[in-house]
Structures are given as C-alpha cells and as structure tokens.
C-alpha cells in the first residue's frame, strides 16, 4: 500500500522543444518535409555488407573451445547460409536513422540471431521432450 501512495497520477511531462541531438530523417528540412527526387541507395549492397559484418561478429562471438565437437556443431548451425540474417540486419539498420553507433548494435544483433536460431531449434525438436 505504501507503494501505491507514492505513485504520481499526473500526466508525464514532455519537453517542449527537440532534444539537441535530434536528427531529421533523410530528405527532411527543419521547416517542412520534402521528398528526395533521386537517391543513390542500393539496398542489395547495404544488405550484403551488413550480413558480412554480422557473420564476422558471429564468428568472433562463438570461439572453438572445449568440448570442440559441440562448439563446431553450434558454429556450423549458426553460421549456415540457410538463415538470411534479416532480424539482425534490421536491428543494426534501425540504429542508423536515430544516430546511434552501429558498432554498438552488433552485439545485440548477434544475440538476436543466436536467440532466434536456438528458439527455432527448440521448437523444431520439441517433440523429443
């Protein structure tokens, strides 16, 4: 009951102006939103570059150690080309528009890929349990 008495019921206060590190989206001006007429963005190159960087980070995140056979199996499964790496690429790409550090997003992206892989494996082999 003491906790309930200390909770404030007033609405949250929001700042009246933009924070100093606010970055407008690409093609936007401070006065109005404008549409880009020509872009030089190549999605396939961007996607494959991020996949290569994520693969490199995953390779470093799962070293071979004792027992080697188990780690070899984990590395083989996670590093397989069957997974398209869409969730980790989207995780890193979501960091970019808000001005975040891309290198700081890679550990989260690798964790996401590992979690999704192991949850898929658990669901696939759940009939054994």
UniProtKB/TrEMBL annotation:
The keyword Iron does not apply. Keywords: Magnesium, Metal-binding. Its cofactor is Mg(2+). It comes from the Eukaryota. GO terms for molecular function: metal ion binding; prenyltransferase activity. InterPro entries: Isoprenoid_synthase_dom_sf. This is Geranylgeranyl pyrophosphate synthase. It comes from Quillaja saponaria (Soap bark tree). The lineage of its organism: Eukaryota, Viridiplantae, Streptophyta, Embryophyta, Tracheophyta.
């Amino acid at each position: 009951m003491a906790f309930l008495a200390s909770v404030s019921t007033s609405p949250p206060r929001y700042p009246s102006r933009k924070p100093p590190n606010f970055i407008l989206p690409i093609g936007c001006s401070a006065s109005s939103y404008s549409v880009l007429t020509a872009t030089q963005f190549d999605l396939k190159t961007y996607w494959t570059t991020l996949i290569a960087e994520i693969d490199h980070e995953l390779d470093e995140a799962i070293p071979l150690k004792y027992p080697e056979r188990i780690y070899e199996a984990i590395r083989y499964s996670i590093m397989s080309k069957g997974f398209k790496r869409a969730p980790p690429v989207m995780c890193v790409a979501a960091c970019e528009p808000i001005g975040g550090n891309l290198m700081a997003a890679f550990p989260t992206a690798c964790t996401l890929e590992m979690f999704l892989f192991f949850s898929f494996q658990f669901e696939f082999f759940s009939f054994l349990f």
